[in-house]
Amino acid sequence: MTLKSIIADAEHRMDQAVAKVGEDFGAIRTGRANPQLLHRVQVNYYGTPTPLQQLANFTVPEPRMLMVHPFDKGSVSAIEKAIRESDLGLNPSSDGSTIRCIIPELTEERRREFIKLAKSAAEDGRIAVRNVRRHARDAMQKLEDDGEVGQDDHERTSKRLEEVTGAHVARIDDLLEQKEKDLMEV
Question: Cα separation of 31 and 168, whole Å?
């Protein structure tokens, strides 16, 4: 393992942490229809918990309406039940083949709860980025201790690692700021 590969691996893992934060933010409702809202929903499909996106397609015909188009018409009632019982606060209705979910207006209190959720997800992302940095530092220190790299190379790479970490934390902060703005938009 080289210093360059340690940095590349750390950068890749930090990118994954930022992407996870983005996914988590997508699942937080903003008052507008977003198909990512339904990605967490698990449907009891013939006795097996199955992610909803494996059972249906989603469309957004209007800004406040989600349409779910199941692949199997026999799963409509199970999908409807799963959406209704999820923590999304949606009340789905179906015509036998398509399920409509009207996104209700968010109250001020609910918006504040969602902002707390977003802040928590962002902090989890920052922690994940810092953990990646710590593991990379440990690997670099081991290389130096084993005599495979010099102190100058180690210090130079450490500075690069700090830059990469700072950039990824800034990306998470930008995502949080945008999500807060979306949530407070009436």
Answer: 28
The span from the CA of 144 to the CA of 136, in Å, is: 12
Nearest to 13 by CA among 137, 139, 128: 128
CB atoms within 10 A of CB 111: 19
- Which of 47, 73, 102 is the last residue before a domain boundary? 102
Q: How does residue 183 score in pLDDT terms, banded at 50, 70 and 90?
A: confident
| Residue ranges making up the domain that contains 49 | 35-102
Q: Could you say which of 69, 102, 135 is where a domain stops? A: 102
pTM for the model? 0.73
Mean pLDDT of the chain: 89
Number of domains in the chain: 2
